[in-house]
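User: Can you model how iron/sulfur cluster sits in this protein?
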Amino acid sequence: MTVTTPITRSGHPATDTRSPTVMSAAARPHQLLDPSALVPPRRSELRLPKEGRRGRGALTNQSGRFEPLDREFIDDGWDSLDSLPALKTEVTDETARQIITRNDSPDMPFDRSINAYRGCEHGCSYCFARPTHAYMGLSPGLDFETRLFAKPNAAALLTRELSRPKYEVAPIAMGTNTDPYQPIEQRYRITRSLLEVLSAFNHPVTIVTKSARIVRDLDILSDMARRNLVRVAMSVTTLDARLARAMEPRASTPSKRMEAIKLLSDAGVPVGVMVAPVIPALNDMEIEKILAGASYAGAGTAGFVVLRMPIEIKDLFRDWLEENVPDKAAHVISLIRAMHGGKDYDAEWGHRQRGKGPYAWQIGRRFEIATRRLGLNTTRRPLDCSAFLVPGTGRQLDLL
Ligand code: SF4
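Assistant: Here's the modeled complex, given as structure tokens:
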């Protein structure tokens, strides 16, 4: 059964429920007696008023799937919801116990990854990593982009894990679940400290980002590139700055991302473009333009994934479509479902990234033709796993 719990002025759930903006269930005894209080709120009732979520991607702070309670914004009769301050970003330091995460997914081009942060302030409305915030007891909605976790001990853990005698070398992926160059990296510099460790160990790394902030680390990246230890993919979903601002509110603008591709390429860092995600009838018409722009800027490789809507994303992204592109929302959803066998999400290996059916086929062919015409994906040198060395020991470890 779903019941409601109040929200504080920060938009986060109240423990002390005496907020001036919302009244607690305890302070509204009529609601406790009223059986209608136990009826799940409509999605529109879960939405934080626009002022309160200015610069954010999600519209709601819908509870995660493990929570017994849902959240509802309630005006106390003083129009107090209209004057909500914009949500602030909160960062909690986390003492991680392990930093390299393994996976054995057959459709992933890597078997290990590092995420220096949990949650991502870029706030992309479609982000498929959002559901992971439910494991923290937090919302995959606004909490995912405002209540972040940083792992300041990440570099120390990485040093320890790479130094283990049985460690086997293979490229580590960064940017698989949260963006390593999201805004808080400016202050925390954890990604940079991880690159310093990887560089010292001659360890190969791949990076995916939607942030031009990566150029801050050109010194390390170009040095690693000379040793064939790094490859970067810039994720570009649209060249339309207004769409990007609404859909990925705190990621770099499309022009900044293109500029970053150029700077990386000029510095000798192998760089590609990821059109991710392709959203039918919303950005799929831009595939050729994005690839051409990225190729012109210096990208040598390209990839794409189609949008998928696992777990909480199906509601969060529907909300976003209905508010931002109401005339297209139903069409976009029906095409997404058509690409996933009639479902919001089809977890089948091999299909979840590229979709299936005629529309997915057409996207795949257009991508193929455009990359061929632009000369993208003609060479992809494997990163060097043979130079790995534990600093100070002269010890080279087993290769995978
Ligand atoms: S940048 Fe990547 S991790 Fe961050 S919100 Fe966007 S899609 Fe998610």
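A couple of observations from the model: The two ends are 49 Å apart (CA to CA). The first strand starts at residue 3 and ends at 5.
User: Helpful, thanks.
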